[in-house]
Every structure is written in structure tokens, then in C-alpha cells.
Amino acid sequence: MPDDLIAFFVALPFAAAALAGSVRSRRLAAMITGLTAFTVLLGALALAPAVFGGEVLRWQIAWLDAPSIAFGFRIDGLAWLFIALIGGIGMLVVLYASYYLDASEPAPRFYAMLAGFMGAMLGVVTADNLLLLVIFWELTSLSSFLLIGFWRHRQDARQGARMALAITGAGGLCLFAGVMLIGHIVGSFALDDVLAARDLLQAHPAFPAALGLVLLGAFTKSAQFPFHFWLPHAMAAPTPVSAYLHSATMVKAGVFLLARLYPALAGNEMWFWIVSTAGMATLLLGSAVAIFQHDVKGLLAYSTISHLGLITLLLGLDSPLAAVAAVFHIMNHATFKASLFMAAGIVDHECGTRDMRRINGLWRFMPVTATLAMTAAAAMAGVPLLNGFISKEMFFAETLFVEGHRLLEFLTPAAATLAGAFAIAYSLRFAHDVFFNGEPEDLPRTPHEPPLWMRVPVALLVALCLVVGLAPDLAVGRILNVAAGPLLPQGLPDYDLAIWHGFNLPLAMSVLAMVVGAVLYFSLQRLFRLHQRLMQAHGKRAFDTVLSRFGRFADEVSRFRNGSLQRYVALLLAVILVAGATPFLVGPYRLGTLAPAWPDPFELTLWAIGVGAAVGTVVAHRARSTALVFVGAVGVVVALTFEHLSAPDLMLTQLLVEVVTIVLMMLALHHLPQWSRPDPRPVRMPRLVRDVALAVAAGGGAALLAFAVLTRAPAGHFPRESLADFFLTRAVPEGGGTNAVNVILVDFRGFDTFGEVTVLAIAALTIVALLRHLHPPPASVTHPEAADPVRHPLLLRVVARTLLPMAWVVALFLFLRGHNLPGGGFIAGLVYAIGLVTLYLAFGRQHVEARLSSDWQGWLGWGLLIAAATGAGAMVLGYPFLTSTFGHPVLPLIGELPLASAALFDLGVFAVVVGGSLAAIVALGRLRAVGDGSVPVRGEH
Amino acid sequence: MEILLASGIGVLIACGVFLMLRSRSFDVVLGLTLMSYGVNLFLFSVGRIGGAAPIISDGVVRYTDPLPQALTLTAIVIGFAMTALLLAVALADYVAERTDHVDGQRGEQRSAAQGRGEAE
Predict the structure, then answer these.
(1) Prediction pTM value
(2) Residue A219 to residue A227: CA distance in whole angstroms
(3) So what's the pLDDT on residue A375?
């Protein structure tokens, strides 16, 4: 099935990345990544019949109940072209890299990153909705950061990588914002929906903002002016990386995005002006600066910038033929630029330098490489019989069709011809300077031809340039048709891919550019001594300035930080207070209109005890044991409040948790000071005033908020069903239980509960880990009984002995009835845990653990496993995770037993609650102070 | 009852906040415990009060909202886990820093220095 192949495309490179990163052998790692790229290429070929037949292949899984954000991939002609480029050039790059990389370098890491990057890039081109595209887009930024900074010992590599990440990452955020806007306007993120919503999009008032943001994303990625400056700095990467990132992939992601969204976003004034202006500026700037580079790779970098500008300009011209030319040039540029970077890498490899002032006359040393490189350079320059010529002719022809102001009609072709001349000049410099122009000047190494397999990738790519240049229609006519199709849903224009179109204006422009370019290069070289001039685009300085400003701003902001938790908490509370009060002070929020009911004496008494105990906790907080008693009283009052307000499940939970919490606190208090020492300094009035003010404001705010909620009728009456009604009416027919709270916990919102018991398990394990090797200082007070760990109160021991079986029975009872009456896994778990804790307290740990299995961490694991397995069981039967079923089997003696599969899930909850409580309490209880008998004193000073 | 419930929540939060702003770790744990009582009651009260317990049975017209109860139930258990974890952290910190000041030795010394400064 070709449809399943689609997901395979994207998954494979990531799997290869994991694999290549974990092997030792450099050869094996190269094989893994190379074969992956080859498989991607083969896959593209396998899909070719369907794609060329005009099909759009799709693969999707709906992971959320929202079709517009389904996780899926989609392959049309444009995506297919990029897959073929990514796979094909990727394979050649890996082959080349296996000879390029030094034996001392961590090759597996390199190939792992390369494979990861390949996967991210495939994701960008095949994502079937915009959010997914953004995610893969960011992945390409991240993985290219790693690749550019591969030589991490070099400062320029680190800086270049960081700059690339900052620029493309910031652009990615803009793109994300733009995509959110588009999704908001269209009502869907699915690519098909967005592409079909052109009119809706462009009529919307937010369209300019959306377009601007998306363009920012594309321009930063494709190094368009004024964001072009990161690309030359990215040349610090190993050359195979440059060959891959700056020919077929990374920087092409930007123009890919423009092409992808072309049907939806293009066709308006704003698109025309912004995109064509940026493209034109980039084209001219890049090609002009490229002439003045001494570094071979620097020259290629600026040339890449200018070609990306050319593609952008073509897309900006907004005519069907220009769009076809843009796609054609994407293909051509990928082939000749990849081969040129590889050739530059060979030169670097052989000479030990990339400085064109020293590298000269290499023709004598490596004629084969020289021929290949010069052919590719000719393609870059747009010399006839090579692929670059044909797309350049199409470009020239299109500039002649620009309509509008007279000046514009003249300037566009003129600028295009000028850029063409610059391209001739820098290509000439590359060919002439490196391979001729006298003798090499003190090179670190004596150059000779590189290994055969290093030349093969270059040769293959150059052959492609030639084939396309000689017989364009035969070679790529159909591919171009298919790849440009998605840009022009109205149908492709008539065009003729041929070398010879007769004597016409574009040809004249080409000839003019060639003559001017050649004259320009040789006169610059003779007259102005080109070798002494270096031109840089000065983006880096501005970038560094902005970066250091941000740094200083961050310093300013963090100045309030003095390491005092109290200050942070106070600040946090103040912010929360302001945020909470604002809607009431400036917004329409008011207290509700329902009249509150008058309290009865029971309620008043409860309130008085609760408030008294809470205040008592504060007053007595320095005497910690006393404060604990007060806290316990508050907890009991809270439990009774739940009971009084018709929440029996909450009452049971609160009461039981209260018991466990107090035991835990007592255990901890045994090792902590019994008395809260006041600060050595006298508590200053301002601080006390601040704390009281914050406390009163927070309490008052909470009380008002609660009152405002309580005096307001619940939302969601007829005709819309309220959430409460939803659960209440479905509890019995769909959940099979009459206790709505428990049905929600184990069935309707079972996934939440699963998350919560996981948190409980994590907390318990963290406590065990924290306390495992902790030896607190000797306890601050010693009770006479504590000195003798074997002596435990007799009465407690008698009670505890009978308590455990009773706890078992009660827990079982509460567990079984939980689905229909108050109870359930949480409550039963707590009951059983308390029975066990009593046993521990009465007999001591050794006694209990000698008689009971006490692997409480094991309980955590089994509990989570049971809960997850119950959920997965539903999936095996074809239902969503945690779907529950139920029945009412009749057992002899016991009678009808309401049984739901959710009970099994509840069993997992039960086990986690028991395991979590016990693990935490035992971890605290087994703490032994330093010098406390059983523990040897270690490393005490 | 609404007034009592709301004011009770307020008192619990106020007492909790005040204790959270103290400088000793155990006081902070006590404060958080009081505060989670208040928060749990508040969460519960979002479902309004005055209905019957949400055990489906014949003849009952109005139940209390079961959803906030389910949420509060797990919040209570998670609150327990948080308290336990905080106690463990407080203990570990006490052992490492040899003081139960929330900022460790640094906090102890800073407040001592400030105390001297003010006494002079």
C-alpha cells in the first residue's frame, strides 16, 4: 500500500538517527544514514506512478477528535519533488561525507544529526496540516543548529550555529503566529482546507498580518534580505552539511513554504510587492557581494543567497509561468549548488585552505575535479547547454512581463540582467581563481585528486546538470509539470522547455549579462586588485548589538532576585492578587444575585470550630506539635463540611487523607526542630504589615470570589445541557454505576485519574529517593520510649493486631460498592493504608516487614500497570483508551454483583494509593539519625 | 450557609498565606496544608451547594454537581502527595543546610546580619 509508505518516509530517518547515534563504527553509521536516504529515494520512485497520475496521497491518524489537526502526511507533486531531492542529494552527501570526515571526528554523531535533519525536512514537505508543518519546521532549525555547530570546539562554528538558530528560530515563531491566524480565519489547519480558502483568507481584515508573519518565517529561513546574514556564518559547518543544507534542504524550506501556500496567499498587491522586492534585493545583494569573497565557501554562500532571492522574486512576480520557473530553478539550483559545495570541500580538503588568494592553478593538480567544478560553475552562471541557463532564460522572460509603472517595466529586466552579469562574474572568479590564475601560494598541503568516491557524487550531480541542460523536456518535463501543478490549481500555463527559442529578448539579455559579467570580472581583477578587497554584509554587527541589548535587559529584570524565597512568594501572591482583582475592578464581574441561605446552628458551630482552629494554627505555629493538632482539627471540620454539603466521597477521602498527613507530619517533625525559632533579627514591622496585608487581601479575595460563584446560578441550562446533567444522566446507562463521582473518576474522566495516580506514584518515588541516604542530626527531643525502639504501647499493639483484618474487610467493602455508593479505589486504598500504618506504628518496621510483604514501590508499579492495562484492553477490542464495559452477574450467596471493567482500573488506583502512602511513610519512618545506633557514622566532620 | 462557606474559605486562605510567608520550612508546609483546604473547598463550591449527594436514586430532583467533587477528590489526594514531598524536601534541606530556614544557611546568616545591623 503506497499510503502507508508515507508515514514510513518521515519515521524512517528518525529511527535511523537513533540507530546511527548508538553505534560505534563510523562506517556502519554512514551506511545506516546513507541507506536511509537511498530508501527515501526509492520510496519516492515507488510513489511516482501514483503522484504522476495526478493523485494526492494521504495518510492520517486522528489523535484528537478534531479533523483539522489530525496527525497526517500528504504527498502531492511539490512534496514529491522535495522528497526526491532530500533523498537523492542526501544519499550523495552521505557518500561524500564518509570520505570527507576525518578519522578522529565523532562520525556517528554526525550521521545521527544528518538523519534527524532529513526526517525533519521530510516532515516539513509532507505535513498535511500547518501546525504539524510548524513543528517540523522548528525541528529543522534545531537539527541544523546542531549540524552547523558540529565542530563545537571552534568558536566560529558555535557563533554561526547560534546565529542561524536565533534568526530561523525567531522566524519560526513568526510563522507559528501566522499559522495560528490563518487557522483562525479559515477555521482549520488542514492544508487542503487552507489551500481551498483563498478568497475567504484574502478578504479577511487579519490577512495582511497573517501574510506578513508567514513571510517573515519564510524569509528568515531562506536567508532573504535583510535576514540573509546568518547564511555566510553558517559556512563554519563541515562542507557536506553546507552542501546539503544550502542546496536542497534547510534554506529551501523557506521557498518551499512560499510555493506550498502560493495558491492561498499569492495573487494580491501585498504579496507582489513584499515578495518580489525582498527577492530582488536579495538577488542583487547576494550576487554583488559574492564577487568580493576570498573564501570559496563564502562565495558559494552569497551565491546561494542570490539564487534564493531569484526563486523568491519569481514567486513574487505572481504569474503562472514565473511560478513554474521558480519550481524549475529550485531543482536546478539544488543540483549545481550541491556539486559546487562538494567541489569546494574537495579543494579545501586537498589544499588545507579555502582562501582563493592562495589557491591558484589547481588545474594541473586535479583536472577531473576541475572539469566537474567548472561545469557546475557554468550552470550556476547560466551558461547555455546547462540546466541553470534554461531556468534563467525563463526568469529573464518573466521580468519582461512585469506590468505597472513604466519605470518598473524597465527596471525589473535591467536589474535581472545586472544580477545575471554579477553571477557570471563570481562564477568566473570561482573557476578562474581556483583552477588557473598562476601558481598556488604556500599551501599547507600539496593538492592532488581526491579519492574516486569523493568525486562520484559531484560527477553524478554535474551529469544531471548537463542532461537537464541538453534535453530539458525529456529529462524533467514531466517532473516539472507534476511539481508545479499544486501551485497552480487553475491549470498549468503553456510553456516549452527547450534550449533554443530563437533570437529573442531574453537571449539578448543573457548575452549582454555574459559579456558584462566577463568584462566586470577581468577589469575588477586587473584594475582594482580584487584580491585586496573583502566585502561583507554587515548583518552580524547589528545582530550582536541586539543580542547584547537583550542580555542587558535580562540582567535588569533579574535584579530584584536576591535568593529570598519569602520575597518571591510575596511577589507571586501580589501578582496573583492583581490578576484576580482586575476583572472585578475594571470588568463586568460582580457578585451574584441569588439570596444566600441562612445558616443553622450546626453550620455556625462547624464554622466557629474551623475558623478557630485555623487561627489557632497561625497563633501556635511556633510550637509545632500544638499547631499540628490545630491543623488536624481544621481537616476534620473540612471533612464534616463536605459531608454536610452532600459530598460523602469527599468527606471520606478528606478524613482519611487527614490521618495519613498528620502521621507523616509527626514523623517528619521527629527529625526537625520542635520549635519554630523566630528570625534572629526582630521581626520588623514593615515585613509583618506586608505579610498580614497580603494574607488579608488574599483571604478576602478568595472569600469574595467564592461568594460571587455561590450566589450565581450554574450556567448551561436549557437548551444547552450543563456538564453536571451530562454526567448525572449518563452515569447509570453508560457507566453502569449510580455513584456519579466514582463513575467520573474511573470511567468518564478515567484518563485524568490515570494521570493523577501517576503523579502520586512519581511523588512517592521521589520521596523514597530523597530520603534513602539521608541521616538527619540527632532528634531535638528524646522521648523515653523512643530510646527503646522495641517498646511500643501495649494498648496500641492490641488494637492494631485486630485492625488490619478489619481494614481489609472495610476496604474491600468500600471498594466493591464504590461504583454505586460512596467509596471506590481512592477511599479503599486509604483505609487499607491506615490499617497498615497503624501496624507499623504499633510494632515497628522490622516486626511488620518480617511478616508482610512490604515492597510498596512494587505496589506502585503494579497499580499503574493494572490501570494502564485496563485502558489498553479497551484499545485491543477496538475502543478508545479506557473505554469501560459493565455487567451484573449473579453469584450464589452474594447475589447480584454490579461489575464494571472500570473496577479493574479502580483496583489499579487502589494499589497506587496504598503503595504511595506506605512508601512515603515508611521512607520517613525508617530515617535514622546520625549516631542513632543502627547507622554507622560516616564522613562526619 | 453561602456566607459561612465563603468566609471560611477566606480565613483558611489568609492563614495559609501568612504561614507560607514565614521563614521556617515546617511553617510553610503548615501554610500550604491550610491553603489546600481552602482551595479544595473552593473547587468544590464551584459546583454550588444545596443539592442531594450525587448518588443516582429515584425521587431526587436536584443533585449537587458531581464533576467538581470528582476533581476535588483527586485534588485532595494530590495535595497529600505534595505535602509529603514537601516534607521530604524540607528534611533533606535541613540535613544539608543544618538549618530549617527556607533559604538555608544563607538566609540564616542574612537575617542574623540584618538583626545585628538593626540592634546597633
Answers:
(1) 0.67
(2) 7
(3) 94
